[in-house]
Amino acid sequence: MRLVDGRGRFLGLVNPVDLVMVLLVAGLVAGAGHKLLSPRATAPVRTVQFEFVAQAVEPQVAALIHVGDYVTSSKGPAAVATTGPFARPAKIVRVEVGPFMARVTTATGRARNPDPYLKDVHIWAQGPVPVTGGSIDLAGEQVRAGTDFTLDSRLWELDGTVERVRVE
Length: 168
Known about the structure:
The protein has two helices and eight strands.
């Protein structure tokens, strides 16, 4: 028996060009289905803790900051209310409020004197972060030691600096 008959059909059943086209379309559909339905590899999630320092904070604002509050960055979406790549809630685990140490220039040089009204606020926050690439995205913003950062919650917003970052 011949593979291709006189009319150009493979095994007398189907045209070889049509067979190649059907196999090609079936392969594309199978590949797209595998890509869309297969589980995605996820990065390992690690806990990141960072220390945030805000200076010259009014005492009534400092009184609103509590351990257990969820925080985010004003540059990103609200971390608690959304899902997606920036939905990594950061939770306050420790707060220290002390007097603001104003820098005063004297005849002998610089001295630090406490301000009787304003406060320095140290906030330690932590949250889960998938470990991918070379940056840590927490609370809707990249967290790096020494960078300016805007931290906020439902009731307050503070501008300050990230002092330390620790990945557990």
